[in-house]
Amino acid sequence: MINFQGVKGENVLKKEVDLITVSKKENWWTEAMKQGINWSSLWKKEDWWTVWLGFLLIIASIAGVVAVPVLPLRWGPGRQGAETIIGSIPAEILSGILVTGIINLALFSIGILFIKREELKKFIVAFPFVFMLAIVAELGGNYAPWRHYGFNSVIWALGIGLLVSNTIKTPGFMKGAVRTELYIKTGLVLLGASILFNRMLALGAMGLGVAWIVTPIVLISMYWFSQKVLKMHDSKGLAITIASATSVCGVSAAIAAGTAAKAKKEEISLAISITLIFTVVMMIGMPALVGALGIDPIVGGAWLGGTIDATGAVVAAGAMLGENALEVASVIKMVQNILIGLIAFGIAIFFSTVVEKKPASEVTIGPAEVWVRMPKFIIGFIAASILFSFILPQNAIDASLPSINGFREFLFTLAFISIGLESNFKEMAKMVKGGKPLTLYLVGQALNIILTFIAAYIFFSGRFFTLPF
């Protein structure tokens, strides 16, 4: 998973330095298992706070404490009352936009207070500027003629962020509110409220055919290619890290796999940088390719969900193809995210027994690592789906969904402003050296794209399986 963080490899690794440090210990798996369940992670880890913040918004929406977020109106030729960009922000909604900003500021300040209290002041100072950029993105995304062709607020958000980052560079005072994963994962928890549980089960079952069949094939093939064809015998850790990032889910998979294989910090950074650059390209290019080739949007959504390397990028790309395609893409990527823990577990065993040739008696890797590595926002997504499918009365659902969906869409806009602000191509390119690592990624991604399209067509074209739409 992680999920697309949109940052340089070095910055990602700083967030995971505790994992890398532990991985350098000879018996790090043993020590990790001895620690047992770390209950403090429930209120100290960002991964869990995406669940709590998502449900805080859901509960507030159900209780009527928060309403639909107020954002700029649609505008453009033929839009009554909003022919111009000025008309899309009438004076009477300015206070509502301000309240929307305050709600988001207060919500995420709660999480940061527990996650890392010392960063709270920087977040409070920086968030108004990130919020204003998100409002500008909403203005661009609400221009009716362009929105019709897929240029929504998320695409504008990414473009605005990239423009800032790659021209004047992101100002230091804004970086405190650049929180890609916090925004995107909270939004994905909210997405669960809109996907009925029976539909999620149906999509998830078919998604297994895309995510759980293709992914291991690509992973194993890439590692074999790295050793037999590219002869990367001295870079086995780098090879498996690139293969995992490509086949599973970008940054998070690279960190999990690299840590399990005891790859060098520089190798994990390189794998992350390669993945991030191509993720941005694929996120914009693949939906356009789906449209140009006339591929069914549902098949296209499944294709995107299985190939684009990050959850956030999958959501943005899927949204360009429509609501159903967004559902399919999101569920497939979440199903694929579950593999992070399983694959890290398998890699640790493989490298201990085959690469390092340790006796079986010395390999003490516990299955609890599968739970440790699994992205926790998936639990929130499923819980929200169950809540809205089986527990809440219909009148409560009808009253709260507009607010929940409105916040979900705006959180995606905030996330992609953050992605753009942290994606400086010049700095990332410095880490991406040509040669074998880049060749491995390109060959592996090409295989991934081909096999995933075949699987997406088999499971989501409607010719072989009944779709839940």
UniProtKB/TrEMBL annotation:
Signal peptide: none annotated. The chain crosses the membrane at residues 49-73, 93-115, 122-143, 149-168, 203-225, 237-258, 270-295, 302-322, 334-356, 377-397, 438-460. GO terms for cellular component: plasma membrane. It holds the Pfam family Cons_hypoth698. Keywords: Cell membrane, Membrane, Transmembrane, Transmembrane helix. InterPro entries: UPF0324_pro (IPR018383). It is found in: Cell membrane. It is a multi-pass membrane protein. Belongs to the UPF0324 family. This is Uncharacterized protein. It comes from Alkaliphilus metalliredigens (strain QYMF).
